[in-house]
Each structure stands twice: as structure tokens, then as C-alpha cells.
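Pinned message: reference record for Cytochrome c class I
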Amino acid sequence: MKKGILIALLLAGLAVAEELPKGPGVDLVYAKCQICHDLTYPLQNAGLSEADWEGIVDDMIDYGAPINEEERAAIIKYLATYLGPNPPPAEEAAASEAPAGVDGKAAYAANCAGCHQAEGQGVPGAFPPLKGNPVLVKDATYPALVVLFGLQGKIEVNGAAYNGAMPPLGHLDDATVAALVNYLLQEFNEELLPKDFKPLDAATVAELRKKALTPKQVQAFRQKLLNGE
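Predicted structure (C-alpha cells):
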């Protein structure tokens, strides 16, 4: 039964998911589950038991999803709580998620480190490095666009080729996107930053969000940066 549920989940990736309910762990679900598919299936099948969600998550791990034990527990808890048989009211869920502040390092760990690794070194042939990545510092709006809208197509980083797709993380609020991008630029690429570098703020991210780009358009913007346009 678990395999059948998982197959349905993967096939559902052809559709576009709505936003997941707010709650602790939602960012982790977005980050880990969207690596291979979107989130239409969980929304359409809200009400599954904790045991069913646990089986689905374990099958994802068997298929190669980069989820450690701590993340596994948090994802299952979120799915069982907010997409289980008795989810809390929306107002209560939103209140429980409200953060005390925005931590760029924590945002990176929750949304990016699973693929790009804790130190931004990436995975050769699969996920490009963010550390020592010169295109990221050409224009700070570029990594923000990647976070907001995703990236798809062939790219080259430090002589290595990659051809994959990064899912958009547009569910993150403007302040979190700004903090995440500032962290990866200043933590992983400090020596490459121009002297006049100014950290992104939430207002800038809000304006970028209005562009509503496709992943392919973000790739085209990247190429223009490389061409010096």
C-alpha cells in the first residue's frame, strides 16, 4: 500500500500545488519534498494517519531523498499534525509558526543544506556549490530570484557542468529570503563580494517577487550576468 501511495505522490508532481498549511516544519517539507516533485498530493490527501505519512517519508528516503533522522521526525510530525485526520484551525497553526526573528543560517540549513550541503560545497554532478560561486556575487538579486522562482537548465560553475532543476521556495517570506541570501553571500563568498556590497532587505525581495519569473527566465538572467549585460 505504501508503494502505491508513493507512486501517486510522484505522479502528482505534474500538477502545481497550492500553499501548505502554516506550521512548524513546513519549510522543511517544502525544501525536502520539492527536490523530486511538488506538493499537490499531500494537499489532496490530507487526513492520512501518522503511520501512513511515516511510511511515505520512509519510502522517499529509500528512493534517495536527503533526509536525516532529525529532519525525518520533523517532517512526519508536520504532516501528521497539519495534514492528518485532525488538523488545528488555520489561525492556531499560523500563530504557532510565528518566529521570534529571521536567522539566515537557520533558513539556509532548513531549505538549502540538504542539497547544497552545510558548508555550501554542493555535490559534484548533482547540486552546484554555493561557496566560491562567482556568479552569485555579480548581482545579489540573482540568488534571490533563484530562491523565489527556482532555476532550470544547463549551467556551469567553476568549470563543472550541471543540468537539473531547483524548485522555487516562494513560500518563504520576504525577510527570510533576504536573510538566507545575505547569509550564503557573506558566509560562503565573502572574499568575492564587491566592496560596495549592500545586503538585501525585505523590501527589495518584495519587489523582485512581483516579477513572477519562470525557472527558465531565471536561467536566462544568469546568462546575461555572465555575458556582462
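Pinned by admin. Summary line: The radius of gyration is 18 Å.
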